[in-house]
Amino acid sequence: MIYICNLQELEGHARALAPSHLASLVSARELPPTPDGMPTERHLKLIVHDINSPLPGFILADEAHMDQLIAFLRDWQPDDGALLLHCMAGISRSTAAAFMSGW
Length: 103
Hints:
alpha/beta
């Protein structure tokens, strides 16, 4: 099962779901630590801002970011356990990532 949340709800969802995989799609300033008990290789830390065109001082998701996300999503299988995706608001970056999963 794929779950989406915002940064504020992440800790509670991670505790309740004990996801097998976690993707954080946030700025470096917003990046949370890997939850206790989760292998660090199962926590994708994709540092991107919620923008759709270049802005000075911000990171626009590019092809390399998308390749990294796709590889991470392909590594997850529903039988592994929950996949938890989050961004700052739980609306745009994380929802787009869920659609990219193909599940």
